[in-house]
Design a protein that fits this description.
Number of helices: 3
Helix content: 10-25%
Strand order of the largest sheet: 1-4-2-3
Order of helices and strands: EHEEHEH
Strand content: 15-25%
């Protein structure tokens, strides 16, 4: 897959600190690092993003768990992929670019 330049809505990979993909369930979420802010994608079995969000340092696992079935912000998914960022501001900028590019179904619900 070819990445777009940052100026065209692509990801600035120089700011991504670590990436990890796990199953979207309690045991998978427990394996995720919590030590840095992160942008996360809840993905379908085919890898298409259903939801894109951000989590603050220390809240990554908790925030993603809020999307599990039966939780307050439930979103269906098979996997969750996180990308750690140096700051929450960078995570929010990356989130906005990914939402524009991939148009995840559950980001349209409004808050």
């Amino acid at each position: 897959m070819t990445e777009l330049p940052v100026s065209m809505g692509g990801t600035d990979w120089s700011t991504v600190m670590a990436r990890k993909t796990v199953s979207f369930n309690k045991s998978g979420i427990a394996k995720l690092p919590n030590n840095k802010p992160a942008m996360y994608r809840i993905q379908t079995e085919a890898g298409k993003p259903n939801y894109v969000g951000v989590a603050q340092r220390g809240r990554v696992q908790q925030r993603i768990a809020e999307h599990l079935a039966g939780a307050k912000d439930s979103v269906p998914g098979a996997r969750v992929r996180i990308e750690q960022m140096p700051s929450i501001a960078e995570a929010k900028r990356t989130e906005a670019r990914v939402i524009v590019r991939s148009k995840p179904k559950y980001n349209d619900r409004g808050k």
